[in-house]
Write a structure and sequence with these properties.
alpha+beta, 7 helices, globular, twelve-stranded mixed sheet, 232 residues
Length: 232
C-alpha cells in the first residue's frame, strides 16, 4: 500500500560505522548505490511505518520477501478507525478490510464496503487498483518505493553521541505528491531507517527496518472474491 509522504521529525536510527561506510562511498550517489546493492542481496525484511497527514494517523507493519509479503495497516481518519491487511503471493494481491477502510480509505463504494468487509478480495495486475495496493508488499517493491532520486546529498544525525550518515533525495508517490526522503544505513549498509518530508502538505512519516532474512510465510487465502466481482 502506498505510504503517506511526510514532514520529517528526527528519526531514531542505529549508530553505524560511518567512517568505514564513507571510505568506500565518497559521494551521495555512491552511498545510495552501496546501500541498495546491499539491500538487494537480502532475502526478506520487516518494517514498521508511522505516518501523520492532515487528520490521518497511520501505522503499517510488514514482512516482505522476494515474491510474497504481508502488510497490516491500522489508521484513524476523521475520528473513524480502520484496518486492513494486504497479502501478495506471486502476481496476486489479496485484501481484507473493515468497512471504514474499504469505504473511506481504499475507494470502494459504501455498498461494496458493507457487503465485503471482513472478506478476502483478490486483485490481479489487470486491475487499476493492483499497483497501489501491492506497493511495498514485496522486498523489491519496497526498496523501489524508498529509493531516493536526484538531487542527492549526504544527511547526518547524531544518535547516542555518534554521527550517522545517510543519503537524501527526492521521490514521488503516485499522483503529484513529491517529497524529500532520507535513507539511513545500518552497520552492513542495509537501509535501517527512512524519513520523508512533504512540507507543503505537512506530512510526517518514518520507517524502521529490521529482521533481515527471517523467513516470511505468506499463503494465498482461500475463497477470495475477485475484484471484478466486487466492482460489478
Amino acid at each position: 500500500m502506498v505510504r503517506v509522504a511526510v514532514l520529517i521529525s528526527v528519526l531514531a536510527v542505529a549508530a553505524v560505522a560511518v567512517a568505514v561506510a564513507l571510505a568506500a562511498t565518497r559521494s551521495p550517489r555512491a552511498l545510495r548505490a552501496a546501500i541498495f546493492a546491499s539491500a538487494r542481496k537480502q532475502h526478506s525484511a520487516h518494517y514498521v511505518e508511522h505516518g501523520v497527514a492532515q487528520g490521518l494517523h497511520q501505522t503499517m507493519v510488514a514482512d516482505v520477501a522476494a515474491t510474497r509479503g504481508i502488510q497490516r495497516v491500522s489508521f484513524t481518519l476523521g475520528g473513524k478507525k480502520g484496518q486492513f491487511t494486504v497479502r501478495v503471493v506471486g502476481r496476486t494481491a489479496y485484501l481484507l478490510g473493515n468497512t471504514v477502510a474499504l469505504d473511506s480509505f481504499l475507494g470502494f463504494t459504501a455498498a461494496q464496503a458493507a457487503q465485503y468487509h471482513g472478506r478476502w478480495i483478490s486483485v490481479t495486475p489487470s486491475s487499476q487498483m493492483y499497483k497501489a495496493l501491492a506497493a511495498s508488499v514485496t522486498l523489491p517493491s519496497f526498496l523501489h518505493d524508498i529509493y531516493p532520486s536526484a538531487p542527492l546529498a549526504f544527511v547526518t544525525a547524531k544518535i547516542g553521541g555518534r554521527k550517522v550518515t545517510g543519503v537524501r533525495g527526492t521521490t514521488r508517490e503516485p499522483g503529484v505528491v513529491r517529497f524529500v526522503e532520507a535513507v539511513y544505513p545500518d552497520s552492513k549498509l542495509r537501509p535501517f531507517g527512512v524519513a520523508d518530508i512533504e512540507s507543503s502538505k505537512a506530512f510526517i512519516d518514518e520507517i524502521r527496518i529490521s529482521r533481515w532474512n527471517e523467513p516470511v510465510h505468506v499463503q494465498a487465502p482461500a475463497n477470495a472474491v475477485p475484484i471484478a466481482t466486487v466492482q460489478a
